[in-house]
Specification:
By secondary structure, the chain is mainly alpha-helical. It is 69% helix and 2% strand. The protein starts with a helix and ends with a helix.
Length: 341
């Protein structure tokens, strides 16, 4: 019967995201600033354009599309968890409900930080969103609240499992390390958001892997959350796959980062989060190298500005989607292997 609840959550996630998207897309399209419609943006010599790394953003496309799958996921998880609790009433007041809320809450905290960044982009003179300092402050607050909630609920892992090494105990260094990991993952996912289907496609594969990992680890009822999010992302890709008509925005990309990082942490397996986020780590590492190279050599490492733009230049937007999904699949296989250790 729990399998039935997962199917219900997935189907509802798809259907509700489709319905919400049909309502929100016209509204989000109306919010596109005139600068983006005409192709104008921050001037090359403006202070906003000097910040590195910044993700390139297609002009004229509505953002904040992540609100579609966030709303769809929330409703689908609610219904799916009700079905699970009807099958196993003892779960309603047990620790699994708390772990489910921790994973979902992590996504919403980072999604709220991303929403602030997206709302800032609506200002004509701030089309690049929040400045780096305020944005990192919001991400840091989201990470601290997430880690504190994990600690207070007795769910925070104090170590991680490494292939060939076994369980590595981190002690007091665990909490700050998970906070830094969540912030880095959020920034990396934000950078991949403007690429057609990249963030949503990679997260979709990661959610499928997370369902398998939770099954292996004995948290099968909690798979209702990744099942609902996978269904919602499948619907969102109808707008986000090339040629994209809707972008997830910072709210969507950072929500996905919070989910990919927060759900494994809620079940005590940070190593699974590290593996599932492989495509985002690659994007973030490329952005970090770009910034360091520009500072040291006074010229960009990638002329296109980012890893996904570099891929797009050489193979097109569909190639970016396939590469990110392939990286996500490799990360999923690593996560499943790690879950079996």
């Amino acid at each position: 019967m729990i399998r039935f609840a997962l199917i219900v959550a997935s189907v509802l996630g798809f259907a509700l995201t489709t319905a919400v998207g049909n309502l929100l897309v016209p509204l989000l399209r109306a919010l596109v600033p005139p600068e983006k419609e005409t192709g104008a943006g921050a001037k090359p010599d403006s202070p906003e354009s000097e910040r590195q790394p910044e993700p390139p953003e297609p002009r004229g496309l509505p953002t904040m599309g992540g609100l579609c799958f966030i709303i769809g996921t929330l409703a689908a998880v609610g219904v799916g968890w009700v079905v699970v609790c009807l099958v196993q009433p003892e779960l309603l007041g047990g620790g699994l409900t708390g772990r489910l809320m921790l994973g979902l809450g992590s996504g919403f905290l980072f999604g709220a930080a991303g929403l602030a960044d997206d709302l800032a982009r609506l200002r004509p003179r701030q089309v690049l969103g929040l400045r780096t300092g305020p944005r990192l402050a919001l991400e840091g607050a989201a990470a601290l609240v997430t880690v504190a909630a994990l600690y207070l609920n007795g769910a925070m892992p104090t170590g991680l499992t490494l292939p060939g090494v076994g369980y590595l105990e981190l002690g007091g260094a665990a909490a700050p390390l998970w906070a830094v990991m969540l912030m880095a993952l959020s920034e990396s996912a934000r950078m991949s958001g403007p690429a057609d289907g990249a963030a949503a496609g990679a997260a979709f594969v990661a959610m499928l892997g997370l369902m398998g990992a939770e099954t292996i680890l004995g948290f099968f009822p909690l798979a209702v959350l990744p099942a609902a999010l996978a269904g919602a992302l499948m619907a969102f890709l109808l707008w986000n796959f090339y040629p994209a008509r809707l972008l997830p925005g910072s709210v969507g990309s950072m929500f996905l980062a919070g989910a990919v990082g927060g759900i494994p942490l809620s079940i005590g397996r940070a190593d699974i989060a590290l593996a599932l986020a492989l495509p985002f780590w690659v994007e973030g590492l490329a952005g970090l190298l770009q910034a360091l190279w520009r500072r040291v050599r006074r010229r960009p490492l990638f002329r296109e500005g980012s890893f996904d733009a570099w891929l797009c230049r050489r193979g097109g937007p569909v190639t970016v989607f396939y590469v990110f999904c392939a990286l996500a699949l490799a990360g999923t296989l690593a996560a499943l292997r790690t879950a079996q250790l």
